[in-house]
Design goal:
Structural class of chain A: alpha+beta
Number of strands of chain B: 4
Number of helices of chain A: 19
Largest sheet of chain B: 2 strands, antiparallel
Distance between the termini of chain A: 64 Å
Structural class of chain B: mainly alpha
Strand order of the largest sheet of chain B: 1-2
Shape of chain B: elongated
Order of helices and strands of chain B: HHEEHHHHHHHHHHHEEHH
Shape of chain A: globular
Radius of gyration of chain A: 31 Å
Largest interface: A-B, 46 and 44 residues
Number of strands of chain A: 12
Strand content of chain A: 5-15%
Number of helices of chain B: 15
Largest sheet of chain A: 6 strands, antiparallel
Strand content of chain B: under 5%
Distance between the termini of chain B: 101 Å
Oligomer: heterodimer
Chain lengths: 573, 311
Amino acid sequence: MATFVDKVREMGPRRALISAVDETVERLTIGMNIGDIRSALRGDEPRRPNPRLRPHADGFWLHIRPSFYHTEVTHIYPTFRMGWLSTFMFIWETITGIFLMVFYTPSPQAAYSNIWNILSNVPLGQLMRNLHRFGAEVMVLVVALHMLRTYVTGSYKKPRQFTWATGIVLLVLTLLLSFSGYLLPWDQLAYWALTVFLSGAEAAPAPAAVNANVLLLLQGAPSLGAGGLLRWYLFHVLLLPLLLGIFFFVHYYKVVLYNISLPPGREEIGEDTAKRVPKSERVYFIPDILTSELMWTGLTTLFLVAGSVWFYNAPLENQANPLVTPLHVVAPWYLAWSQGWLKLADKTIVVGFIPVLMIMFTLFPYWEWETPSRRYADRRIGLSVAMFFIVFMFISNWMGSPEYLVNSSAEQEVTQEILPQEGHSELLSVPYDELHNGVYRLEEHDGELHVSVELEDSSISEEEAIGPHLSHAFHALEEAIYLHSCNATEESSFFDTCEVTTEGGNTTYSNFFFKGAMTNPVVELHIQQYQANMKKLSLHFATTDPETGEPVLEIEDAVGTKFRHIDSNYEED
Amino acid sequence: MQVKITIGIISFMLTMMIFSFVALREPARLARYTAAVTGRTIENGGLLFKNNCVSCHGTYGEAQKGCSFVNEEGVETGLCRGLALNNPALLCGDYSTRMDAMNTALSKEAFIRSTIAAGRGQVMPMWSSEFGGPLLDHEIDQLTAFVLNWEPSEAACEEYFASLIIIDWAVEYPSVADLSSAVLASSEGELEPGDPERGQQVFAVTGGCQACHGDPQGDASTAAVGPWQGNIAEEGATKIEGYTAADYLYESILNPNAYIAEECPTGPCAAGVMPQNFATALNDQQMADLLAYLLGDNTFESTANIRFLEE
């Protein structure tokens, strides 16, 4: 073979250099030189033999991608690009995750302050954390929608049963990945969500000794602490991504093997023609699909970045404290359904049912009575069951929220809305300057709830006292009071009339929304200068027993108290 | 395909623009979040203080002066003996008066932190879970930040320091007789005759005596570390031959190790437990007030000639 020097002698330095670059490009792309790339970008017909197929045959990266698709599957319908998007999200999470990993130590002493360090000391740290967390939520959604799409178009049917089965494994792994990341900030949200999850693992329908040892494996110690955090960190960054990677390649290989199924109406029942694509209906990966995927990469990145900058902020509560249980412990939204089930049924039954459900999901494509038809009209029962299941999951998710079957008192619920133990509220995010010291009293007059203000500083008028943000907060407070109160008097009222039930000598007053509501309450918000740069906010309630007229709640006692430091910056959270 | 390439390029450029938009604002945002970390730490400390500390140290850290715990039936169950925290004595200066009184070598933050974590005497409990208390490390940090946030203004500190009359006791200190009202009333000095009410303040708050010696107006069980002082007017005269109660009390404050009392609430008393810097921590006026409060009389009888520091 001629050396570069020989070539320079033969054709001069300029042409020799061009030829060397061309050769290098051809090696890197495994078969496509600069001319081939340009012709592909122009949309020309490929030369013979087609160099655009060689990266699929000989290259590593493209050997798990089909070299061409049926034109019918390259539009938005029938795939909605959910599979590609799932892969994109996995890569996205890996990249942002590695960035965060650099600034994180999995220990209870360090983890929480590490997160604050990322937020307050690492350039673009908050953005990266938001990108990672927002990406995680999007990924769960996308993977679930991918499964739904596959079910609806019947793509799980023969010969793709195994692709479906690996897909279910990937769904479960995605949920576990997202959930295992939940613990890592080591805040109250994380700690108690995982505690609930682990208490579920403890209730599995297995011998107590097995459960105890599974629990020990999952948290590394009799209680959740340093060992548990380290293990869940390793699940999150090592074990689960590794497993997901393995199943991902199997899943992708099956797509190369069977290609993407055509829209159900396009082929005869029982036939699978995805691999037998006539030349005229082929869309080649290079350049069309590749270009399309690069475009979607750009658009999705734009969506995720814009979303993380303007619309999404990853939550961070107070540092985990095993001695303090927050009022409402909620699972992340994608697991809230299980919390809903736990409120209704026995723990052991629920925990035992979930794996059964998963196995059913994995194996049902293999069942004999399945109709081979993928057409919608032939699958009315199957599609109806799916619709019912989706509705059922939405209802279960709602049942998982604190709105359903919570046991705390009405005044605690109102306080939780306005001065929550953890997280944010309309009142906390009122800018410090807008909080004027004084007493704000909410009282009912003539069927409406009025705010009267008694300020310490008499130079501020009542209109000035309630600025735009505070006014927003009062609307939230009024709504919360309305939802948790009822009218026990004869006169018409702002509040709905009480439904009175007597059980075992105890009289309970309820409205449509809440059992055990307050009767015609008067509510006061006290804002007080507590330290030079910190105000104290407290919520006070006054109610009387409608039968005896004796006070139930007294205005002197604060039900909830929060402090607001001048710098605490809740506005931006 | 050209359309797709264009869309892809435009969205990539928009993404880069958003990145630069964020990057340009990043230094200011980082500063706001750095301040927020401190702010939220203090807020959480405030909640911890409200839930754990106010019954002794007062809602505003002003200390509960001679208050008592009363149960629902109105029966007294104990006494509040917390020191004032929202107080220049603790907070003014890098090395504050209170730290001087405790003779600590720690920084102010470490002093407060270690006091909360490990307690002090038998009155302030150990709060850190490390010592069996209910609070975790980060909560102790939050409380410390909260207490330090009571930082008085510079003017208030200057006023406080001006009010301290610092006397070099080693060179010049009055005898008990010099502090007696009989002498002070007739002299034209700056001092007023001892006032029991001000003396109570010195005992309970400024000097911090009550934390160990209990409430002289209560009963003997209020004393936690040192001997109860409610009966010192009678008891003091019996301790050392030739000493009046005033002589004994005065010497014991200035030089606690000169005579070790036998009975302390925790068993036999030991030398070196009581701080030995009250000679510098208290001024003449405070001493006269303190003696007047404990002896119930501001005419001090003296028979001994106390010269402890020259020994």
